[in-house]
């Protein structure tokens, strides 16, 4: 994950000051890279992933799922199409927004509030209660909302604390969130390569495209359920070809090196198109890991040798 | 579906000139109402449904699913929460956009293009190819994009043909769509009441909230699959409480008065929270209808009488 | 269940003194008949059922299942083929044998022991321990073994206490049984007619012939399992046509008038040949009855009326 | 499979002249042994298997399944209990009986016919049609019926051609069988040892004891069905402990060295008691072999290396 002069280049959904950049900080602090990182701003999650596919960066950090809004569609769609990429690590941030203004602007002076749509959806109630007269203007990112304030395009912005500080903006309100406990998960993505080692607390993610025959979805779910695999996310996204055809984005507990996960992957591959997005360490306990296969495999070996 | 003076009041996602209003036209032409309709503009799909819940209108027309973008999240979420509402009819429109400008504006003069986000997602490539220098500015609806052009807020707008005509705008391009064959389904929603009669080509829609135990989703899918019920849509939406808890929006072929559909509804109700969104005539063939139960029911009756 | 002069004629697997006759006694004592019964001896369970099919009797009592030996194959096969018959009641007897001799015969004088094969299988160990020198000679029934003793054909017989008494034989040993707690279930069979009323503790029995396609058996089991129907017996019997084709004899908890049992019967009938053998009161608690459908059915009705 | 002086000792269900001995001939002709065999007569299938468990013989030949009567219960029960044994080969014989008498005995002189119960069940109609006055007397085996004729115990016997020839008996009728095409499968059993090599046309046999929880049988069937394993036999036998508890005897197409069979065995072992009876070459095509796992396994390996 290094560039030619030994510095890994990592794209992230920017500009400077987004939650995504905060997630990149976190990855650095957690030791995800073995050298200082050169940060490359991308205008959107798909743009970050495209830089990675093109070889212009060695990794990309993008938001993938919000506890409030669900999967981040641009990220999901960009992972579904184009060359396969691989998730190697995750981190989660508590999401609360900072509403910023230019110094000296009072709440009653706020006629327009810039907000990234995902953010707008999470602070709508707060704005209605606190800035009832303000019109919401779409910003290109959470940090972009701060930039729009700094440039005078809007009176206030729903931003990150970091973006406000960097631009020297005033804080109208901090910790703003309509839904308590909102969190967003960010992932570090690379081109396909060796899979991070199994830790015992892992997440595996795949995108399935099922054959258009009755019972395909039941079959897929059954391949997981019979092996005791704990599905933690299932989201469907239309394939954009016709009604009723979907990509299914699945996350489950376990690692490709868990024998039952390997079995399940092969079983799905037998009848469906499976895009493997990776197995990596989960940031927290998130369900029931697959049971060990050791006893059963040893029993089978003993049978094969006639010892049992 | 009438108001006090005999005129049904129907809310729609406006302003005037949206695709949704065109869908309302279609419902009128198809005879969905037995009296002239009074149209009530709502600023968003949830707002239209809220007017209905409040009793301010008798029905609402909202977009529910795009063949390109999948379910329309604000509609889905507004149907999931609050008092139960009921879908009684559907129609589908081919979706292609009209890019409008003020008369006299040349393509090379377009620095900003207003677009509703759903529209922006469907014309992104066209804009990159044809108006590469233009910045996309978020509009509140497709008709709103035309209004933003008329008011001078933006130079061009991704709008409907109808909206452009009403405002006397010039047409820069017609039939604009990155994805050929894009369609959107619109539904007519009422408060709960008698269910439209079974036609033999019907759609049933429910929202499921499954108990948080392993195998719930397999169980739900199995209740449908064993009864030969053809699932035409499954979309998950986070419940906004925690990662991994979802509402599942399901559409299938058939009507609550099909015995196997009735069985399936009861079976789902046995272990899950089921919000029934209605059974109504599908606009086109869309899968395999449930088989008849007649032979089996008659056989059972003969057994009960000892005749077989 | 009466003959022309008001006396029901009931066939049973005889001769006089069999366990089956004891079961017929039990049915009489329990009030299964509303008039004194005329008993008609049949040489085998199939013969008893054939008398019933021919109209020569109004009912038949036959053994159907042993806790030690499983289903009684001649009974099962005779219920599978020919005109459909219907089970209307059951009773169970503890099975322990009485070894009888002619008066004055000592154990050491016993060179031959008559035994019906089902009985022989249940006393083999006792004979090996107590009459090690004796040869087992096949008898036509448990009572027939006593007759063979009386006629001098064998020295001792594995019989019922009743048969020994009636023939004035001596008792060499009583309560003989290799397997403690052995019981046999007997059923009262009639031609098809009204089904006994649901009691809440009922048994339903069917014979399935599944289509010869992969997954048929899983499908059948799933139709029962998804409805929470508690299967208490499953036995396969070859159809006698080719390897691998079977009749499946299934018993489960519940009554055809339990809505979920009715659903399951119809579901099985949809793809398999189903011979319904009846629903009747079980003699003892034997599993989990099907849940009520009331709540779900009422919910469905409210939906249909738009009340919920 | 050899004794101390280089001659394998093989027990069979005798006496001399049984179909089982004919099956042993067949195994010899097919080269199942690499040295001449010393034949050891056993009085019953369980007795033959007990000699094997005790180490008194190196192998045993027993009948296991009849196309008319289904599994041979004494064989099945003897394989279920006691130390595990292993089936290593099979052969099938067309079953038609030879009715023998002492020379000079005319059909009208036949008052008693000796028959092994399995045989009696397959010639009942022939006897009723051809020897209507004759009483059936139970013999200990098909060859034993011929011995009973020779010793004068009965007038005629339902035997094998071989047994009649060896005893110099006359043939009253040949090729006697109520059911056309009746066949019986015989197996060669050894103590556990290396498993015969996979041929691509194999049979695997197991005995399952399922936990007494609802859905166990569906789960077991599903583990096979999801892996496309073709079940060719399922027979239940009571465990002799209580009603409703069974051993399930399953045969399916494939070999323990087929990856999907290995998976299925491990999956069953995860929740049930599994007695593996062996994998061996089937004598004829008998269903759909498991699909290869190669593509899926290679895909998985490429994922693991980051090559795909």
Automatic annotation (TrEMBL), chains A, B, C, D:
The keyword Amino-acid biosynthesis applies. Pathway: Amino-acid biosynthesis; L-phenylalanine biosynthesis; phenylpyruvate from prephenate: step 1/1. GO terms for molecular function: prephenate dehydratase activity. Signal peptide: none annotated. InterPro entries: ACT-like_dom_sf, ACT_dom, Chor_mutase/pphenate_deHydtase, Preph_deHydtase, Preph_deHydtase_CS. It holds the Pfam family PDT. The keyword Amino-acid biosynthesis applies. PROSITE patterns: ACT, PREPHENATE_DEHYDR_2, PREPHENATE_DEHYDR_3. It is an enzyme of class 4 (lyase). The record marks 184 as: Essential for prephenate dehydratase activity. Its EC number is 4.2.1.51. One of its GO terms (biological process) is L-phenylalanine biosynthetic process. SUPFAM superfamilies: ACT-like, Periplasmic binding protein-like II. It catalyses: prephenate + H(+) = 3-phenylpyruvate + CO2 + H2O. Residues 9-191 form the Prephenate dehydratase domain. PANTHER family: PREPHENATE DEHYDRATASE P PROTEIN, PREPHENATE DEHYDRATASE-RELATED. This is Prephenate dehydratase. The lineage of its organism: Bacteria, Bacillati, Actinomycetota, Actinomycetes, Mycobacteriales. The gene is pheA.
């Amino acid at each position: 994950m290094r560039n030619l002069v030994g510095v890994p280049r990592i794209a992230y959904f920017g500009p400077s000051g987004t939650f995504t950049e905060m997630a990149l900080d976190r990855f650095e602090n957690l030791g995800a890279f073995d050298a200082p990182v050169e940060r490359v701003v991308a205008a959107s999650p798909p743009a970050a992933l495209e830089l990675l596919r093109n070889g212009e960066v060695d990794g990309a950090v993008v938001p993938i799922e919000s506890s409030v809004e669900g999967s981040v569609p641009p990220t999901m769609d960009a992972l579904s199409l184009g060359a396969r990429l691989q998730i190697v690590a995750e981190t989660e941030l508590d999401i609360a927004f900072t509403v910023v203004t230019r110094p000296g602007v009072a709440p009653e002076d706020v006629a327009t509030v810039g907000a990234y749509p995902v953010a707008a959806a999470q602070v709508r109630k707060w704005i209605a209660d606190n800035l009832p007269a303000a019109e919401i203007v779409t910003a290109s990112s959470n940090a972009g909302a701060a930039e729009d304030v700094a440039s005078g395009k809007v009176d206030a912005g729903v931003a990150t604390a970091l973006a406000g500080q960097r631009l020297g903006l005033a804080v109208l309100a901090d910790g703003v969130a309509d839904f308590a406990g909102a969190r967003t998960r960010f992932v570090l993505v690379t081109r396909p390569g060796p899979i991070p080692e199994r830790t015992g607390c892992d997440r595996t993610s795949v995108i399935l495209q099922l054959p258009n025959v009755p019972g395909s979805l039941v079959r897929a779910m059954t391949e997981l359920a019979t092996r005791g695999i704990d599905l933690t996310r299932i989201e469907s996204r239309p394939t954009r070809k016709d009604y009723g055809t979907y990509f299914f984005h699945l996350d489950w507990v376990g690692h490709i090196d868990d024998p039952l996960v390997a079995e399940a992957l092969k079983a799905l591959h037998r009848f469906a198109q499976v895009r493997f997005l990776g197995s990596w360490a989960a940031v927290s306990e998130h369900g029931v890991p697959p049971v060990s296969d050791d006893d059963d495999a040893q029993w089978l070996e003993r049978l094969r040798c006639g010892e049992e």
